Amino acid sequence: MGNSTPREITGWADWLKPQRNRLLVLMVMAAIAMVIPLMANNYVIEVLTNAWFYTILCLGLNIVVGYAGLLDLGYAAFFAVGAYTTGILTSKFGMNFWLTIPVAVSCSMLAGIIIGGPTLRLRSDYLAIVTLGFGEIVRIVARNLEITGGASGLIGIERPVFFGIELSKGIHFYYVFLLLAICACYVSYRLQDSRLGRAWQYVREDEDAAEAMGIDRVGVKLYAYVIGAMFGGIAGCFFAAKMTAISPETFTFSQSVLILLGVVMGGMGKIPGVIVGAFALVLFPEVFRGVGSMRMLIFAIVMLVIMLYRPEGIWPRTKS
Amino acid sequence: MSLLDVQDLVLSFSGLEVIRDLAFTVEEGSIASLIGPNGAGKTSVFNCLTGFYRPDSGIILFDGKSIIGRKPHKITQAGMARTFQNLRLFKSMTVLENVMSGMHCRTSAGALGAVLQTRSQRKEEEQIRQVSEDCLDFVGLLAKKEVYAGNLPYGDQRRVEWARALATKPKLLLLDEPAAGLNNEEKKELIELILHIRKTLGITILLIEHDMGLVMKVSEKITVIDYGKRIAEGTASEVQSNPKVIEAYLGTENEEEAL
User: Fold this and answer.
1) Which residues 172-211 in chain A show a CB within 8 A of chain B?
2) What are A295-320's pLDDT values in tens digits?
3) Are strands B16-26 and B4-13 parallel, antiparallel or unpaired?
4) Across A112-116, A126-130, A161-165, which has the greatest mean pLDDT?
5) Same domain, B95 and B126
6) What is the C-alpha separation between A6 and B147, in angstroms, rounded?
7) Which helix (H) or strand (E) holds A262?
8) Which domain holds residue B67?
9) Total structural domains in chain B?
10) A195, A227, A230: which to substitute to probe chain B, counting the most B Cβ within 10 Å?
11) In a domain, B84, yes or no
């Protein structure tokens, strides 16, 4: 007990020293990210906001796919639950946007438990099929219920007011999503180097050995699932607020695949890689906008080339 | 009371009985061995004990409590740790990280603690690291803690498995063929290590082994099984002179020669 204090001090010094350079780089990057919208036009702001938005989703899915090694083909469902919860509560019940966040996050986490609880016992790729089905179920339910506005979706979702400022301009949401993305990075980093983060890695590497070491493999996977769902839920809340209208067509299977693509293309389990992947996802089609309808084809070719020559992703996890 | 008490254990795979009415006990503080020719069902016994297989019938009492039907991680938590016959390390993680896995069931920090880096979480991380380093030191691998486990030579990988099992703070340590693939020098070190674990850590040990020399040197009680049935039990000399044991072993050796 007595020597715990000096240990903590060396701990902090250790934390600062090797990471000082990295910290500097991060701060410079954050500064650039803060300043860019002040000089950019609305189009650029919109695209970058979208990139940050996908960063949050990809980081959330990365916890499931990258950290815990579970293939999830229905991630858009969690994002939909978050968006719809906020949408319904503000437009139909007149609830304050900020108050809907905890409700929406709880709902998406609950959705994570409902789908994960029974299915995470499954080994292998059965899980992928189940999650695919779940994603479609959520979308179809949203399409057919009255409260979710059916096929045309919800409109008139309240804009959030932040200390007297109504968040309505593109630049407002740019900062909102930037901030959320930074939080998502921070949480991901902290989880990665924690007891839980290691447990995910053990389970991903060898389930039986992990279990023999006393790790509850189902529990640990469920944990990853629920945290991933939480990220999706939060992103969904702000997405609803930004768009003021949501429809089931936003949450299709291809949306789930797109998010998964960002994670895999960037580099599963590696935070900077996932961010690069999310940006690539959003920026590629924009950069190639000039070639018109051919751009999705070029996008597909670029992705194929990346997957062929860098199957571990653009910026993969380092392994010795 | 015995630390481990197995009675009338039966295990079958689609009608084929792998373990038949097996009974044996392991006394607290002892080193016991389970031996038998290839395919006698030794590893299946281990898998029943550690919860990976669910036996058809029988009783397994660990520390006085039945553990049948419990999940493997719960059994580890109750104080039974194992190593695997063919190494099952987390190969792309460092040696230290591998050993840290053992401390998982003795600690509790969750996501919130990790994100907020609470005082208790940091203390726990420090404790995990400390215990893991102690375990590595115990098996003589502390100097290699930052090496990726997959890059270690075979003998060292074995030691990582041991350290990892020790980090779970077990009462009973199950070793599945610990001498497999080791040379004579390494086997000698292994014997010392086994005796050292019992003496300094007070851990009871049950091992499965092919290597008769090793078994005879370390174990106080030997249970011999063949075709999933116990054919003999006793001290090394008792077992060695038992005609049934000689038959079981010679039988297989003859078959090997015939091949």
Assistant:
1) 186-187, 190-191, 193-199, 201-202, 205-206, 208-211
2) 778 778 887 888 788 777 777 776 54
3) antiparallel
4) A112-116
5) yes
6) 27
7) helix A253-266
8) 1-79+170-259
9) 2
10) A195
11) no
Domain identity same for B249 and B123: no
pLDDT band at B28 (very low <50, low <70, confident <90, very high): very high
* Final residue in a domain of this structure, among B137, B168, B199: B168
The reply to whether B259 falls in a domain is: yes
Put simply, whether A4 touches B (Cβ < 8 Å) is: yes
- Is the pTM here over 0.90, yes or no? no
> Measured between alpha carbons, how far is A188 from A182 in angstroms, rounded to an integer?
10
B125-182 residue pLDDT tens: 999 999 999 999 999 999 999 999 999 998 899 999 999 999 999 999 999 988 888 8
Tens-place pLDDT, residues A1-14: 334 444 444 444 45
Q: By the 8 A CB rule, do B167 and B192 touch?
A: no
If asked whether residues B164 and B174 sit together in one domain, one would say no
Shared domain for B122 and B12, answered yes or no, is: no
| Nearest alpha-carbon partner for A79 in A71, A87, A91 | A87
Q: Is A217 on the interface with B (CB under 8 A)?
A: yes
User: Which residue of B lies nearest to A224 if distances are taken between CA atoms?
Assistant: B111
Maximum separation of any 2 CA atoms in chain B, in Å = 66
A212 contacts on B by Cβ (under 8 Å): 50, 52, 72, 76, 81-82, 84, 88
